[in-house]
Amino acid sequence: MKKISDFLTKYKGLIDNFKNAFLYFGGSFLQLCIAIFTSPIFARNLSAEEFGILGYFTSARQFVFPLTTMTLTWYYLFKYFKQDSNQNKKLLSNIIVFLTYVNILVLFISAGALYTYFKIVKVEIPFYPFAFIMLITLFLEVYQIFLLMELKLKKAAFTYFLYTGLLAVLSIAFGLLFVVVFKWGAAGRMFGSLVGLIVTSLIFIKQFKFNLKIKLDFKLIKEAMWWASPMLLSAYFYLPMANIDRLLLGALKDTSELGYYSIGANVAGYIGTAAAALFSAFQPDFYKFVAQNNKGKFFLFSGAYVIVLVFMTIMFFIFSEFIVNYLTSGRYTRAYIYANYYVVAILIMNITSISNAILIALGKSRFQLYINIIAGSIGFVLYKYFIHQYGFMGGTYGRISIACLYLVTQVSFILYLKFKPFNLFKK
User: Fold this and answer.
1) Are 311 and 62 in contact (CB under 8 A)?
2) Mean per-residue pLDDT for 85-109?
3) Rounded distance, CA 56 to CA 261, Å?
4) Phi, psi dihedral angles at 125 (to 5 degrees)
5) Nearest to 17 by CA among 304, 360, 357, 289
6) Which of 151, 178, 197, 273 has the fewest Cβ atoms within 10 angstroms?
7) What contacts 72, CB < 8 A, 6 or more positions away?
C-alpha cells in the first residue's frame, strides 16, 4: 500500500493531467457520442457534394482565423505565469475589446478578399451564404477561444466540460433542425453551429463579466502586438502545411470526391480533437516546467503525452473502416482510406506541439517564424507536386510529408543554433 501511495504522490501532477484531459475532451467526447447516432442521419441528408462544400470552407476559414485572434492567445499564455491575477484580468479585457473592434474590419476585408478569390480562380463552389456564415462564426469564436483558455489556465476542467458540452449539444441539435427538418443542406449544417456558438458566447461573456467598456491601454496593446507579430506572420507560413489541401483540391473541380476526402478528414479529426484536449491538459505544465527549468518532469510529461497519442492512432487504424461505414450510414465508407492517412499527419503534427511549447514559453516566437517560413514555403511546393501527380490521394501524401518536414525543420533548427531543448530553458 505504501508503494501505491508513494507512486500516487510522486506522479500526482501527471495523473491530474489525465483527469483534466478527459474533462477537456469531455465536450468533444459528448459530441462524438451524439455523433454515433446523428452522423448517419446527416449522411443520409447531405450529398457528397455538400460534404465537399463543408470541407472547402473548413479549409478556407483557417486562412482568416489568425487575423481574428492576431495570435494574441500566445501572448496571454506567455504572460500568464509572469504576473498576478489583476494584471492578467486587465490584459485579457484589453485584448478582448481590441479584437472586437479590429474584427469588425477584418470581417469586411475578408469577405471582399474571398469573393475576389472565387472570381479569379473561378471556384465552382457557391460563395453565398457559406462565406458569410463562416466569417460571422469566426468573429464570435474569438470570445470562446479566450474564455476557454482562461478556464484551462485555471485548471477549471469541469467548468470547461460544461461549456464545451453545451456547445456540442446545441450545434448538433440546431444542425439537425436546419438540415433534416428545414432541408437547408450544407448551409443548414454550418448555420446550426453558428446558432450554438451565439448562445454559448453570450453565456461566456456573462459568466466572466469582462469590462467591455474598458479604456484601451494602447501601450499594453502595442507591446502585445509587437510580441505576437512574428507569431501572426508565422501562422500564415504554417497555413500551407495544415490547411491549404482542400483549397488546392477544389481546383480539380470534383466536388463529389472532395466530399469523400473531407469526410475522411472529419472522421480523423476526432483523433485530432482528442489530441488537442490532451495537449490542453499538459500545456500549462509544459510552460511551468520550462519556467522552472524542471527537465525531469518535462521529459516525463512529454513521454506520457506522446505514448497516448501513438496508442490513439493505432486504435484508429484498427477500427477506421468500421467507424466511417457506420458514421456515414454505409454511403461513404471508402473515405476511411483518406482518414487513415490523415491521422498519421495528425499524430506527427501533435508531437511537434512539445517543441512549440518550449519556444513560446521562452518568448522565442521569432524562432517559430523562421521554422514556419522554411517548412511552409517548401510545404506549399510539396502540396502542389503531390496533388498534381496523385490527385486527391496526393493531398494526403502532402499532409504527411509536410508534417515530417515540419518536425525535422524544428529539430534541425534547434541543433543548428547549438541549443539542446533543455538548455533553451535557461534565459
Assistant:
1) no
2) 90
3) 10
4) -75, 135
5) 304
6) 273
7) 95, 98, 99, 224, 225, 228
Given its phi and psi angles, is residue 50 left (phi above 0), alpha (psi -120 to 50 degrees) or beta?
alpha
Q: How far apart are the first and last CA of the chain?
A: 42
Separation CA 52–CA 130 (nearest Å): 12
Residue 234 contacts residue 364 (beta carbons within 8 Å):
no
Q: What is the largest CA-CA distance in the chain?
A: 70
Q: Which residue has the cell 501601450?
A: 219
> What are the pLDDT digits (tens) for 362-392?
666 677 778 888 888 888 888 899 999 999 9
Question: 310 exposed, middle or buried (CB, 10 Å; 0-12, 13-18, 19+)?
Answer: exposed
pLDDT digits (tens, 9 = 90+) for 139-197: 999 988 888 888 878 877 778 888 888 888 899 999 999 999 999 999 999 999 999 88
pLDDT for residue 7: 46
Q: Which three cell numbers stand for residue 395?
A: 493531398
Q: What is the DSSP letter of 426?
A: -
Peptide bond into 66 cis (omega under 30): no
Q: Which of 296, 27, 291, 266 is nearest to 167 (CA)?
A: 27
Q: Of the candidates 120, 140, 13, which has an alpha carbon nearest to the alpha carbon of residue 64?
A: 140
Mean pLDDT computed over 256-274: 89
Note the Cα 96 to chain centre separation in Å. Answer: 20
> Which pTM value belongs to this model?
0.74
Among 195, 223, 284, which residue's Cα sits nearest to residue 98?
A: 223
Q: How confident is the model over 108-134, as a mean pLDDT?
A: 91
Decide if 68 contacts 138 (C-beta within 8 A). Answer: yes
C-alpha cell at 345: 499527419
